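Action item from last meeting closed. Structure (214 res):
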């Protein structure tokens, strides 16, 4: 064990790095401030100088998870339609959450004052929507709803046991209408393709709203 003079200073960044590693190893249920403190070889109260509580920790984890994937997002490309940008933004958000076990559950309900990267994603989405012609109120509501949709759907995706799909589970529950629908879908469709299709349904609604308002 390192002496006090040799020990690396405790910082929020160190706390987040260790917490992400523990999250990936054992999931959200086993992620505790006490366990993080043990990994850092400090007393648990020392963490409270850097993270006020478990919710604050999850917010900083959300920021770390989302930030890496959004570097190339920014504004629309020259030849990119606003709905194409939304598809790209949603995919990048989902991808960042999927890189970590229970990533979407961590991000659910995040405080945007701490989850700065998620706040930036939301702000960029509002800007793209207002530039497309939505009024500010509708743009904020739509951007927030899309963010919640992506996080919630990704949380469900990550919660399926052993990577199973709804198709694998249908025999154990009474889902007659769902079973009929699944029988018509392409069994080779990837999880990415299903996610894009689901987001596409949401975006189609936005395109309809904008078209009818003009």
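Sequence:
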């Amino acid at each position: 064990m390192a002496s006090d003079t040799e020990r690396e200073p405790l910082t929020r960044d160190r706390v987040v790095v260790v917490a992400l590693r523990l999250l990936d190893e054992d999931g959200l249920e086993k992620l505790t401030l006490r366990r993080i403190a043990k990994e850092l070889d400090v007393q648990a109260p020392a963490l409270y100088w850097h993270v006020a509580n478990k919710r604050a920790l999850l917010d900083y984890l959300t920021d770390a998870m989302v930030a890496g994937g959004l570097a190339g997002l920014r504004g629309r490309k020259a030849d990119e339609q606003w709905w194409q940008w939304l598809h790209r933004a949603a995919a990048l958000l989902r991808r960042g959450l999927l890189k970590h076990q229970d990533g979407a559950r961590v991000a659910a309900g995040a405080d945007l004052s701490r989850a700065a990267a998620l706040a930036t994603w939301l702000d960029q989405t509002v800007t793209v929507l207002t530039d497309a012609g939505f009024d500010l109120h509708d743009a904020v509501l739509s951007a927030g709803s899309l963010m919640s949709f992506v996080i919630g759907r990704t949380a469900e995706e990550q919660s399926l046991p052993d990577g199973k799909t709804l198709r694998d589970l249908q025999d154990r529950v009474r889902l007659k209408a769902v079973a009929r629908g699944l029988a018509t879908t392409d069994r080779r469709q990837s999880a990415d393709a299903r996610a894009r299709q689901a987001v596409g349904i949401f975006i189609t609604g936005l395109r309809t709203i904008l078209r009818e308002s003009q």
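Note appended to the action item: The two ends are 67 Å apart (CA to CA).
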